Amino acid sequence: MNTLTKILIVALSLLCVVAAVLFIQLSVGQANYRQAYEQKDAAWEVAKAQAQQQTQVANLAKQALDALAAQKETGDRDAATEIDRLNTENARLQAENARLVGQQEAQSASLVGLKASVEQQTQMNELLTRQLDERNAVVQDLTEQHRRTTLQAQELARDLETARQNVSVKTGLLAAAESKILDLEQRLARAGTGTRLGDPAPVPTTVINGRVTAVDAAHQVAQLNVGSADGVAEGMLFILYRGTEFVGELKVAQVQPNDCAGLLSNLQRQPQPQDKATTNLDVE
């Protein structure tokens, strides 16, 4: 029920009240009709004034209702416009939400793929780390082997140099021994003077021990590393042996201060450098 209807109802109610008052007055028996007429006219004037007031009130109410209707129409238009705007905005937001949902789904799928890729890469990194550790261990082993090999090579180089020096020294000694043996052979060939090999061998006052330093197998001549400084004399007999094996005998034919040379005899095996020599095997 709108406001205008309420106002009209109130006006009608007032008119009914006025009519009821008039009806009551008329129903009361009065002798003075003029007074009644005047009262009626006064009542009518009052009712008229009240009706005019009610009409003014109704007009004011109608104006208010018209203003309210205009405001309502404007509000309805504004509301419709706002509803359209909100619907448009809602549609836009729904579209944006759908787009974002699509992006989220795509990103979720991408994240799943990325997670799988990261896990695969992590496994690959772990495998590569293990392989790298294994290769590092192999490299360390090879480095250690190289270090040991280098040390061995250096040691072998030193040994080789020492051996070369020894060979050089022994070559010089062998050349000297060969020279002495040649000189001895020449002296033996001349056999003009000196002790003959058939003479009795001189006996040393002490046991003399030495080693074979050179051998001339073709002429059955050998050289020892003991000489006159050790008590060796020409014609002295040395027993040659190798370990526990008897090699043969050497009869001194030439003596130097630090070495001697002589003829080999009673050979059981071929003499070699470093074979031992002694004048008395039992004592030695």
Secondary structure elements and pairings:
Layout: H1 3-27, H2 33-190, E1 209-216, E2 221-224, E3 237-242, E4 245-255, E5 260-265, E6 276-278
Antiparallel strand pairs: 1-2, 1-6, 2-5, 3-4, 3-6, 4-5
Helix pairs in contact: 1-2
Written overview of the protein:
The protein has a 6-stranded antiparallel barrel with strand order 1-2-5-4-3-6. It is rod-shaped, with a radius of gyration of 75 Å. The protein folds into 2 domains: 147 residues; 85 residues, Beta Barrel (Thrombin, subunit H), CATH 2.40.10.170. Helix 1 runs antiparallel to helix 2. It contains 2 helices and 6 strands, in the order ααββββββ. The protein is α+β, with helices and mostly antiparallel strands and 284 residues long.
